[in-house]
UniProtKB/TrEMBL annotation:
GO cellular component, one term: mitochondrion
Binding site for Mg(2+): S96, E165, H193
The EC number(s) this enzyme carries: 6.3.2.17
Protein known as: Folylpolyglutamate synthase
Taxonomic lineage of the native organism: Eukaryota, Viridiplantae, Streptophyta, Embryophyta, Tracheophyta
Molecular function per GO: ATP binding; metal ion binding; tetrahydrofolylpolyglutamate synthase activity
Pfam families referenced in this protein's UniProt entry, alphabetically: Mur_ligase_M
Domain Mur ligase central positions: 67-237
EC class: ligase
Function: Catalyzes conversion of folates to polyglutamate derivatives allowing concentration of folate compounds in the cell and the intracellular retention of these cofactors, which are important substrates for most of the folate-dependent enzymes that are involved in one-carbon transfer reactions involved in purine, pyrimidine and amino acid synthesis.
Keyword Magnesium: yes
Source organism of the structure: Lupinus luteus
Keywords assigned: ATP-binding, Ligase, Magnesium, Metal-binding, Nucleotide-binding, One-carbon metabolism
Amino acid sequence: MAQGDNGSSKSSPVTPYEEALDALSSLITRRTRVGDVNLGDRFNVLFEYVKMLDLEDAISKMKIIHVAGTKGKGSTCTFTESILRNCGFRTGLFTSPHLIDIRERFRIDGVEICEEKFLAYFWWCYDRLKEKTNDNVPMPTFFHFLALLAFKIFSAEQVDVSIMEVGLGGKYDATNVVQTPIVCGITSLGYDHMEILGNTLGEIAGEKAGIFKHHIPAFTVPQPDEAMLVLEEKASKLNVPIQVAPPLDVKLLNGLRLGLEGEHQYLNAGLAVALSSTWLKKTGHLEDTCLEQIHTLPQQFIKGLATASMQGRAQIVPDQHTNKETSNELVFYLDGAHSPESMEACARWFSIAIKDQDRTLFHQKPDNSKFSNEVVKMHHGERAQKKSTQILLFNCMSVRDPQLLLPRLMKTCADNGVYFKKALFVPGLSVYHKVGSHTLTQNDMNIDLSWQLSLQRVWENLMQGNKGRSINASSEELKDDIEMSASNSEHSAVFSSLPVAIKWLRDRVQQNRSTRFEVLVTGSLHLVGDVLKLVKR
């Protein structure tokens, strides 16, 4: 077992689970996102790993739904899994990234894999690869290993259907070792990871279409013409029958609501219905079915769509620390949007959510490694006597362009009459070359805040350009104790760490009992996960 990172003999003993996470962390490469290794060469090595783990036959027999795209991959996979689970099938769902625990990436029947099974499968794969790899074929990288682990878990657990979400791109993604999926899906395409996938929608679409396989049916959602033309061209070359799945008609839900919030989810739900129907038909569980959703949906489909749940996407979580008496004085609205288009969808959702005066807040609560829904009622009379203040809590990776993200967020909120009193910019809490809760860093005095200061400058410039807008609701409740921040401006502040920013928010609540603080957390799924870790402690 590896020694503790700090070399101290007084460090607490490492648990078996933490030992596995440390081994997994050793596979995280420190090179740039683009990398210095040819993507094609690195992808081809995956087939060597599959042989080392004796997974060739197992993968060929798996009944896989493979999903790529820029926005909505995770939501589409979540809807699809929920539909087929409600149809009575044993499901395996592989998604990324995780928010709190690595095991979230591997779900069996809608529940993350338990620690005991994770450890057994992890070491089975890790030890065999460690034994068989060498200088010419080194250990797989972090995500490659996780994809291989998913195939091992789902084959060993004998799931009926495996829903595999592409991590990045498609053509060279680790999940693309699948040669004969049952059906493929491409969600909404947009500009993201351009440093790897290309600078035009056409180039990005070409990478995503890399998951297409000869004669295997594929579905997509309505796309911009440039992207659609490329998808159709790639499909034609492989004799892939490709169809555009229409957005789900809300009437088909028989009065129920989608389990995932946001108007854009009707696109993802429509795609999920097409993927699920095709999987059922191709595996012999459903006679020729009409995919146009003209009249009705099976009851199992409706229940699956209505009960689907996903952490970190359009999620509302009252702060457990301050809301002891269900007064909901500090509420976090979490959405891991990180592209211009998803930022706009996030802003629309937030604007609607905070205006729903008599809403019920659903938030997820850990319960023996499962996530159960806890319902918190907000009383109309109580809300009526409180004024609300909107705060933005933001961070994004440095490969993103804040000049594309922040203006879309601000404008969409403003168009809906929502204005942020203060924007808080924080660095990531997690150490990105480690995984596991024991790797959180909270008191690094030498942390580089240059990126957060850049984000703050973008925000302040935007605010200066919007001086005529209705943003001057009184802000006296935010003025005191701002020395906690590393850089304070009129409309924003940079904090040295997320815990300090959370403490500042909680202090504001204590000093302003007549105000409800509604905090939008967005820009990064890593940030959303870090907030959940802190708020749910």
